[in-house]
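sanity check this fold:
=====
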Amino acid sequence: MTTAAAVDNKPLPFLYHFVAGGIAGVSEILVMYPLDVVKTRFQLQVNLGNTGGEKYTSVMDCLRKIVKNEGVSRLYRGILPPIFVEAPKRAIKFSANEQYSTILKNFYGVNKMSQPLSIASGVCAGATEALAIVPFELVKIRLQDKESAGKYRGTLDALVKIIKNEGPMALYNGLESTIWRHAVWNGGYFGVIFNVRGLLPKPTSKQQTLLNNFIAGGIGGTVGTLLNTPFDVVKTRIQNDSGVVKKYNWALPAIKTVAMEEGPGALYKGFVPKVLRLGPGGGILLVVFDQVSTWMKKYLI
């Protein structure tokens, strides 16, 4: 008879981690995507007093204005690129984290993870994840920007026009800033999850396990968001710039430029919708990943 402890201790092959991460990612994005649109709109607000652009004052104000002026469907504009990439993106996040955890434990000759190793494996997983998603992120950003509403008819049209007008390598604009964004978020996320799980009461039921995972993932997502938002702001600016002479190129100089021109607070534009998404979203990710992984361990291996 297979005990619950034996199920939990079964090693899960890379492919299963990959699939579980993909299911977790798609689940999170279907629930939380409108907040990502709001986050992008806030991050692209620059010098509105001089341009006459529409100003958003809060998350609810932005949601209301988008629905009123552009229609409900606009809250999901640009969702296809992240849906296409979300499965491999989140799959890479969790599967790479598991693989790097194993590599680091073997390298240091230890049997259990520590918080420093959890942070290191998360950073490595984030950098790996970033390499796979840059083109999808760029297309998503272009579609989410209100100014591009008449420029691109949809995902495929945006992809074709970007390649035609800016060249194929334009799809990798913002690669360096994307690596920074994901490495920092994943390091904070997995490092905090390790610590919070150790502080929470040991679960005695399935419901308590779900609650612990949601709390740990939610706190991890919040901390990761707090740490990586400045990199997310400059990544959005870099990827939305289709001009020949670009104002923003590299992450750290771009952070300096934004802080000097708009004030340090500008580096946290879009933080509220971002944390509202990735705080609970981090909990959803961990809960779904853990549940799918447990089901796979029980029934498939």
